[in-house]
Amino acid sequence: MGKFSISDLENLSGIKAHTIRMWEQRYGILRPVRTSTNIRTYCESDLRRLLNVATLCNRGHRISRVAQLSEQELCQAVMQCGEEGQDYLPQVNALLAAAVAMDEPQLQRQIAAALDQLGFEEAMLHVLYPFLRRVGIMWQVGTINPAQEHLVANLIRQKMVAAIDALPYVAPTAARRWVLFLPQGELHELGLLFMSYALRARQHHVLYLGQNLPVKELAAVCEAYQPYTLCTVLTSVPERDQVQSFVEELARISPHTPLFLYGPLVQRECLQLPGNAVQLRLMTDFLALANSLSLHPEPTEVLS
Fold first, then answer.
1. Record's superkingdom (predicted)?
2. Which of 104, 172, 175, 267 has a CA that sits 20 to 30 A from residue 152's CA?
3. What is the pLDDT of residues 200-247, one digit of tens each?
4. Do residues 182 and 188 touch, judged by C-beta distance below 8 A?
5. Distance (Å, rounded) from C-alpha 248 to C-alpha 271?
6. Is residue 127 within 8 Å of 95, Cβ to Cβ?
7. Residue 116 domain-assigned (yes or no)
């Protein structure tokens, strides 16, 4: 599967098109097929090889030496790459190559190495989120199939759930209380899970309602739980022309509760925010918010 242009390879590997052409002509690392109009097209194995070559070159290996490696030697060299330094592109490229190959053991090894080296939050921000963004681009343009995308998402979800479970319990009567949810029809959960981890790690209490929650259920939740805030991520739901009315409906459900909004659908300039709503543009903005609020805990309250 997969037919890639040279600009696709540039976007997915981080290697400039002119460099790819030079490597191809001088070292023969790729063997594109030309269309009837003489345009280069590349296959999935070309992408995987380029990602592996880029991983090693970004680690300081000479392209003249890397180009001489067999496919097996290339994969072994990537697996043995040290994880030192602060350049995360090699780790992202190694993960992409493993995803394209459906190499689950290599994905597990690369994810574990990033977590061990950086810790959970730093690994998510610098390696796994950039990796997921690249996977998302590949899925959008049809160069990665649903099985590959699901493999990646489920492996990372498993790591997130395990990290959350490993955190100490925080009682709801001794912390700020957050309701985290995704609207009905929204299944992109990884951003919300990361928020849950970040809040719990900072001694907030989280009522995690997860995917696909009908908005009408929130009123009863707010009455029973008395949250400090509501927080949601809008990735693919609702439809773009319904985002404004959806946000206004959320604000009406609990008008005195802060509402934090994150995700691609809330980044539009034309979105008019109700008085109790706050737009978060970056995940680092959310982390800064969680840090700030953890320094100023609420007085202890008893749930009704």
1. Bacteria
2. 267
3. 999 999 999 999 999 889 999 999 999 999 999 998 888 878 889 999
4. yes
5. 10
6. yes
7. yes
Q: Which residue has the higher pLDDT, 80 or 290?
A: 290
Tokens 């343009």 found at: 141
Q: How far is CA 304 from the centre of its chain?
A: 37
Residue position matching structure tokens 């959806």? 246
In three-state secondary structure terms, 262 is strand
Q: Which two tokens stand for residue 260?
A: 């934090």
- Tell the residue number behind the tokens 């202890």, with chain if given: 300
For residues 90 and 76, give the distance between their C-alpha atoms in angstroms, rounded to a whole number: 14
* Residues pairing with 206 in the sheet: 178
Q: Are residues 176 and 159 in the same domain?
A: no
Q: What is the span of the domain harbouring residue 253?
A: 172-294
Last residue of a domain, one of 141, 164, 187: 164
H/E segment holding residue 62 = none
